[in-house]
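Structure first, sequence second, as always.
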């Protein structure tokens, strides 16, 4: 059992990008589903779907993320994923201190009272929250 599903998700996507895999399976939670929705909206991944997987005689519902590549060399759209807030060290920001990732090229994903949102949406709505990760 994984205790930090966001770190597990980031690590699995990073490893799948390194071997240029078409898809990756991730533990399904509401948090990982919301992060996957943001990655699809921002164009970092192709799509995702919830899929039932048979493992050791049990049916487990998992999140299947389809990764996105560009060019003949299959360069991944996700250059880097960085976990910011973790269980041992939570990072909270106010509305005035929401970080810009590479001057707006990348995104920061925040957990707020309005749900899981990007840094641009948080700045527009003038709300702060916990910085989960950076994607560029």
């Amino acid at each position: 059992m994984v205790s930090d599903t966001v770190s597990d998700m980031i690590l699995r996507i990073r490893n799948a990008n390194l071997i240029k895999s078409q898809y990756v399976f991730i533990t399904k939670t509401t948090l990982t589903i919301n992060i996957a929705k943001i990655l699809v909206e921002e164009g970092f991944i192709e799509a995702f779907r919830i899929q039932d997987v048979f493992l050791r005689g049990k049916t487990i519902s998992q999140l299947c993320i389809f990764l996105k590549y560009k060019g003949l060399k299959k360069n991944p759209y996700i250059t880097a994923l960085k976990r910011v807030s973790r269980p041992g060290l939570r990072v909270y920001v106010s509305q005035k201190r929401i970080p810009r990732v590479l001057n707006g090229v990348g995104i920061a994903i925040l957990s707020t009272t309005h749900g899981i949102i990007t840094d641009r949406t948080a700045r527009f709505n003038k709300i702060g929250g916990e910085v989960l990760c950076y994607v560029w």
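Margin note: The chain has three helices and ten strands.
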